[in-house]
Structures are given as C-alpha cells and as structure tokens.
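@channel anyone free to eyeball this complex?
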Amino acid sequence: MMTIERFRVLWDTLLPIGRDPDGAGWVRYGFSPADLACRDWFTGQAAARGLTVETDRNGNVFAWWGDPDAGDAVVTGSHFDSVPHGGAYDGPLGIVSGLLALDLLRQRGVEPRRPVAVAAFAEEEGSRFGVACLGTRLLTGALDPDTARALTDSDGVTLAEAVTAAGHDPEALGADPPRLARIGTFLELHIEQGRALADLDAPVGVASAIWPHGRWRLDVTGEGNHAGTTRMADRRDPMLTAAYTVLAANKEARLRGGHATVGRIEVTPNATNAVPAAVSAWVDARAPDDATLQGLVEAIRVRAAERAGRDGTSATMTAESLTPVVEFDTGLRDRLTALLGGAPALPTGAGHDAGVLSGHVPTAMLFVRNPTGVSHAPAEGASDADCAAGVTALADVLQELACR
Ligand SMILES: [Zn+2]
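replying in thread with the prediction:
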C-alpha cells in the first residue's frame, strides 16, 4: 500500500471517536470518554507495531521504538484533545503521522540508533480545564501541580477527579525531570492553522517561531440604569467603552501587523432593558515579536482609557496570561528545511506543546498545508496527498536524526 492509502485507512479508524453525531465537528475534551477512547486507540496501534507503551505521571502517553532508557531520544507527537466542536486534524494528525512515519522507516529497513517515540500529550487545547498545554506544562514544571489539581471544568469536576476517573494518580502530577531528560529532540507535525502554505503552493513547511501571545481581561464599570427613563446624556454606559475598545483592538492589530480578538464578553446584569452596570471583555492578542505585542496591548489599553473618560466609565486591563515568543532551534530548523528540499519556514500565531518543550530540548515543527486555513472548526482539513507528504517528510527527518 502507498503511504496515501495507509494514511486514509488508519485515519478512518480514528475519525469516529468523539465525532458530533449532528456533524458539528469533534468534541474530545482532555480526560473525557472520547479522549480516553483515542488513547486506547493509540495504545492498540502501538501494541500492534510492537512498540512499548508507557504513560507518564502527567497522563502523557509515549510509544517507544527502542530502549527509552538509552537516552537522547527523538520524540514526535501531538495531542488528541480538541476545542469544542473543532476539526479532526488539529493534534491527531501529528500522532497518526508519527505512527505512519515509523511504519515507513521499517519499510525502508532502517534501524534506530537513538530511541524513537510517538507521544500523545494530555489536554493541549485547555478546553476543559482552561490551561493550554497542560500535559507538557506539568511535565516541564511550568505548571504547579497543586494549582493543576484544583483546576475545574464547567461541571465543577476538578482535574484531580478527572485524572482519578481516567485511572491515574493525581498525586503523581508534576515535573518529571528524568522523563524530560530522555528526550534529546522533539518534533511536532501539525496541520497549518492558516493559509501560508496554500499561498506558497507547498504541501509541507517548517516552523520558524511561535508568536508571543496572551489574554487580557478588560473590566469596564459604569452605572446600571433604566433603558427607558435614563436620558442619553445622563448615561455612564460601560457597553460603549467595551464596544469602542473591540473596534480599536481590531484597528491597532491591523496597523501593527498583529492579531487582536475579543471572543468573549460578560455583561452585568445582562438585561435587555437595562443600561449595563459593568462589562468584562477578554482580549486575545498576538504579534510577531514581544515588543510589538507589548505595543499593541498598550495601545488598546490607552484607547480604552480615553473612551472611558468620554463615557464617564472606568476601564482597567489585567493580564491573565502571557507567553513570550518561541524561536525554534535555528540549527535544527535549517537542517530540516534543507533536508526537505527547501521547504518554507513560517511562523505561527498558535501555541503548541512544541512551544513548551522548546524551552528544554531542541524542538522543531512541521506544518501540513490546510487549503482553506480554517482551524478550530469542523471545516479544518488537509488532502490525503498532503498528509502523506507530511508522513514522508516526518519519516525523512526521523531517519536523518535517529536512524542508521
Ligand atoms: Zn494542536
């Protein structure tokens, strides 16, 4: 069978898991039954290939080809969990491609001189417990285990309870230096979450950097009042300040070559016939470099404050999270682009486990072309031919780095 056919056959076995019955994408929250079914699928696939499966103390699963204790391993992988009603490719493509790349290497008759593993990391999207890259943040010690255990989902279930229900020990969560030390190089293959490769007419690209990104909460307070009896001139309406800031954020991002999005808003009291008393809006901002991001957020803050002065409201912006720029290992990146026949190097605005791990081990990412650029939505996709090209590229890189 050709790689393209192998891809489709394997992909079709995973596709039904967590699929919304009404066709509204995939719902695979971390440690949910759908996520656990994906992990069972992975364990089964690894066993069928004679790989050694181990789950670390943070719920990250590794399938090893070679002796994990030999050290300096080349690890590839991604995540199974999804955003609510997301696409099928974000995450699982990296795991499926890892398995198929190993198949290809065996078909080529090469043997690993460094141990190779395919990994499935826990709760990357943060859709259930609100912290992105939960598995790798715990593994690397970037997230305190006590804080993690107390995280709750929208049903009030704590991470500790979810981990217990999944058959793991929540007390074991936390930094795992010996396991991290086994990893000599990390490679994550991921569907592109934009249209850069489509515009460049290239099926596969190499990541150069992850844009710095963060979330800020804008709190605007005014005066709650009657929508019918309060004269327009007498109002102190926080909705106006928030609405203006949403537009200003969009404009400032365009002017600076960054991204700013307000995708979530809370209104108090949220009544049709009341001037609101308070509005909170969450600004997601990203930019090519730290200074541009800082400038963008500062500009949004200034515009909100100016408008608040005119509206008779008060506005404050509080940082909820900030991830600095991630520059992937340039030596590794250049080696990969050369190996892949001059594949384009491109930055991404999305966070990844590779971004977390890159602070600890030489890390690279491969992107597979996404013709529409749509991601975190059911329409996300890649052609089978491009997915097969991704598998071949990953196998070439693994062979170069880990095999003889
Ligand atoms: Zn992802």
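from a first look: The chain has a mean pLDDT of 96.
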